[in-house]
Amino acid sequence: MKYFAGIDIGSTAIKITIVDADKKLVGSKTSGSGSMFYKYAHETLDTLLAELSLTRDAIAYTVATGYGRKIFKEADENISEITANAIGAVAAAREFGSIKTIINIGGQDSKAISLDDEGNVVNFAMNDRCAAGTGKFLDACAMNLEISVEELGEKHFSATGTPLSINSTCAVFAESEIIGLLGNSHSVEDIVCGVHYSIAKRIVKLVKRVGVKEGIYFDGGPALNQGLVHAIENELGKKIFIPPYPQITTSLGAAIMGVDSYAYQNLENIS
Ligand code: ADP
Fold first, then answer.
1. Other Cβ atoms closer than 10 A to 162
2. Which residues, judged by CB distance below 6 Å to any ligand atom, belong to the binding site of ligand 1?
3. CATH topology of domain 1-93+247-271
4. What pTM did the predictor assign?
5. Topology (CATH) of 94-242
6. Per-residue pLDDT for 175 more than 90?
7. Which of 14, 152, 224 to mutate to test the pocket of ligand 1 (most atoms within 8 A of CB)?
8. Is 47:71 a contact under the CB 8 Å cutoff?
């Protein structure tokens, strides 16, 4: 049996996914990108392969994607994260039905991608200029509130009353706004909820740039935060689908692309 690796080197996290020749998920691993992307990507791949009792020889084709994709020189191919995200999202959402709009929030950017009926990308919009509305903003807020990003979701649902408004459009100013709110005796829960709604409002503006088409899918690490999911659904006024492993969608798409590229280049039946 041949295996295919998708390596997504993001600004904040490295995600590696392995699929088999039937494009079925075999395993995945996530680790921090740190400053040595290349070294950590190789280490993460080796750890994942060891966990799956596979060697590098078992990997027939590797596709790299994400912000740091070009530094993974051993890849057979590299593709943009927009393409990989779309392929992965369509595969991950099969049980949900057809998806037409992808919201991706990463460590340092956020994207809205519009798909046609065949799952092809027809338009996208991206915010990569400003940390507000990205995972980095959530990380900074959690740090200021002395909680972990994993705790943001549950705090959100313990908030009381109308969500606080966080008006700063810049992450740096938002940090001082948060410290000010704490000083005015607002609870951590109410501030977390306010942060989620401020991000949700930005994301909705981004999605509106590509058009809100039903069949909305949300991925990237921050999609693990149920409080943020709730805020985006409320701001959009629509239900959104979250895959079981939202952070690995783009690496899954890269691995799936690898199966097709390998079959095309080798003109062989690979399963
Ligand atoms: P990138 O691809 O740009 O590196 P990711 O999609 O991996 O970004 O998302 C990274 C962000 O995901 C982190 O900055 C963090 O805010 C968020 N995140 C990661 N794990 C969790 C978690 N368990 N719960 C909530 N948020 C998380």
1. 10
2. 10-13, 33, 66, 106-108, 135-136, 138-139, 149-150, 220-222, 224-225, 247
3. Nucleotidyltransferase; domain 5 (3.30.420)
4. 0.95
5. Nucleotidyltransferase; domain 5 (3.30.420)
6. no
7. 224
8. no
